[in-house]
Amino acid sequence: MITIHLRYEIDPNQVEAFERYGRIWIRLVERFGGVHHGYFLPSEGDNDVAYALFTFESLAAYEQYRIAAASDAECLAAFEFARETGCIRRYERRFLSPVFADDTGDTAHRRLP
Question: Could you tell me the CATH number of the domain that includes residue 46?
Fold first, then answer.
């Protein structure tokens, strides 16, 4: 299992546009087999930083998603929306291995449904 952590530097005057962008990608990631854990928008503190987390069963599954998204009309439209609005200034991507508590209280890697 692999979780992708995205840290975005956003335009603080385009938070609503970024939120729209995020809602589009939540649906798209799930359509491509991932589990999206949400976008996290500025509230207190920095007004130009947002985060997103989503998980795929494996790095290979994530790579398949990236390849498919590169030619998918809805994905391309979402990228274009971000470019047109300027809501994203830059982003950083990290790959993480999640650990969750199992039923006994011990920690273990959790499998996607």
Answer: 3.30.70.100
In this structure, are strands 2-10 and 49-56 parallel, antiparallel, or unpaired? antiparallel
Which residue range forms the structural domain that includes residue 90?
2-99
Tokens (6 digits) for 54? 């989503």
Q: Which of 16, 111, 4, 100 is nearest to 51 (CA)?
A: 4
Give per-10-residue mean pLDDT for the chain (113 aa): 96 96 96 95 90 95 96 96 97 90 54 51
Number of domains in the chain: 1
Inter-residue contact 51 to 6 (CB < 8 Å): yes
8 A C-beta contact, residue 6 and residue 91: yes
**Alpha carbon distances (Å) from 17 to 7, 33, 46, 83, 102:** 16, 25, 18, 11, 38
Q: CA triplet 55, 60, 65: central angle to 5 degrees? A: 65
